[in-house]
Amino acid sequence: MIVWKILYNSIILPLLWIAFQLLGLFNSKVRRGILGRRTLFADLERDAQRLQGTSRIWFHSSSMGEFEQAKPIIAVLKKKYPRLDIIVTFFSPSGYEHSKSYKLAAIVSYIPFDFAGDMKHFISILRPTAAVMVRYDVWPNAIWELEKAGIPIFIASATMKKDSLRKLPLLRGFHRRLYSGLSHILTVSEADVNSFADFGHLDCVVEAAGDTRFDQVMMRRDDALKRPALPRLVIERKRVLVIGQNWDADDDVVIPALLRLSESIHQLLTVIVPHEPTEENLASVEHRLEGKLTCLRMSELAGYAGEQVILVDSVGGLVALYQHADVVYVGGGFRQGVHNILEPAVFGLPVLYGPKHTNSQEAVALAAAGGGFVVHTSADTFELLHLLFSDEDKRLAAGTIARSFVVDHCGATNRFLAYIEPLISPVKPQSKKL
Fold first, then answer.
1. How far is CA 271 from the centre of its chain?
2. Domains (range + CATH), the chain
3. Residue 272, pLDDT above cutoff 70
4. Using an 8 Å Cβ cutoff, are 325 and 387 in contact?
5. Sheet holding 205-208, edge to edge
6. Does pTM surpass 0.90?
7. Mean pLDDT of the chain
8. What are the b/e assignments for 216-241, b being 16+ CB within 10 Å?
9. Cβ atoms of 350 and 222 closer than 8 Å
């Protein structure tokens, strides 16, 4: 392990840092991450003075998607322990920028780049009772410094692919030692437990606790139902199709199917929510519909006059829109990978998505169960949509399967809490290794 530490800190990490800096010259997202870290330690020193809780739990996520898996844990912890200080960090600028006003955290920050000195300084400022890494974003020096400080380290909703590059002969031993520095690896499934076993014996607890995303979408559903996203006047007596998080590649398939569907399904209202509602993307959708279907932007909804399509030109309201849907298409499956299919499924809706869905274990499982439907062409997209809108029994049956799929997988949050709650004390504990 000493050899690996030397290699990592003297060769691998400096090369990563140089690549990060060079990429920042061309990539605005990376550049924002570099600039956002310039005052990181000064900000932490200032913010840490406000921490007054009896215990401190540090949650780290790579980006916004992973942080969604931390949110249900944090929500329950803060409800049960109001004086608990929550510290949240991100590697990605998108995660940090979307979450810097997160109300349940005492501190929201970038994680420093993984230099040993910076990580030691970071930990000495925050002095967490425990550290929770969400899913997979595990940085070696962060682990080693936490381990030296005697701070318990968890991975929540951990996953490990059978063919992970971390299992290559030269890397397997390194990761076996790295993971052995953790206290608990709490995985999404038993398959992930078995996959971690490929590293050999790990000197930590590796158990399946489930995926907290199921708990999170249930919480978001309950919140969304309190605030309807569309007025009754707009949706009354309508059949509603929501096309969410779509890219151009999705539009190439789905919009031709929609045009055919609108000819046979009367009172059809379609709500289109682009993954990135830039003016360019909005104009692209409007151009595809021009002269075929009437369209109105969401920001102009006060002037609704029976338009067939509502085009959402803002961010953040997709989950609330799902409550009004009869059928949902989730985008990404004709591009890099399908987006979140659990959000519509929890409302009891049949969900369609493209063939590039194996990035999502739940998308694969939902299709196998009969609540999700994989489409490949405009023709089969039209046929499926027409069937689901025409056959109420088929639609409701698929929706029931979809909702049951989510409900049956809830509970990971409470299972995770059973491991971390013993560390939370009414008096500030001295952290020790489990």
1. 23
2. 24-210+411-423 (3.40.50.11720), 228-408 (3.40.50.2000)
3. yes
4. no
5. 107-110, 85-90, 56-61, 130-134, 153-158, 184-187, 205-208
6. no
7. 93
8. bbbbbbeebeeeebbeeebbeebbbb
9. no
